[in-house]
Design brief:
With about 120 residues, the protein is α+β, with helices and mostly antiparallel strands. It has 3 helices and 4 strands, in the order βαββαβα. It has one domain: Alpha-Beta Plaits, CATH 3.30.70.120. Strands 2-3-1-4 form a 4-stranded antiparallel sheet. Belongs to the CutA family.
Length: about 120
């Protein structure tokens, strides 16, 4: 597998507690050119410890595709716009994939309105 086409592409995962917020966040990320595409998956069940207690809650997962150089801006945007006190934001490097798609991700996140566009 050739890693070079994907090295500039990252998948960022976050979750939220409602379909409405998931859609609001997804639309906002795409509108701001912070993500080329955001898939909303859910509902899913998440088990976690928060404030000393274990909880199992229904959430919606967002899977955003973005350029590596946009991860910090995307993370800051989620932190500012998310309803959770400590939202999950996990960035996973893409090591390869369909070059035209990966190129589209980079192009979409570098358009007008994007910093350093």
């Amino acid at each position: 597998m050739t890693a070079s086409p994907g090295t500039d592409t990252v998948v960022v995962v976050t979750t939220t507690d409602s379909d409405a917020e998931a859609e609001r966040l997804a639309r906002g990320l795409v509108d701001a050119h912070l993500a080329a595409c955001v898939q909303i998956v859910g509902p899913v069940r998440s088990a976690f410890r928060w404030e000393g207690a274990v909880s199992v809650e229904t959430e919606w997962q967002l899977v955003a595709k973005t350029a590596a150089d946009r991860v910090d801006d995307l993370t800051a945007w989620i932190a500012a716009e998310h309803s959770y006190d400590v939202p999950e934001v996990i960035a996973l490097p893409v090591v390869g994939g369909h070059a035209p798609y990966l190129g589209w991700v980079i192009e979409e996140t570098q358009r007008e309105g994007a910093p350093d566009a």
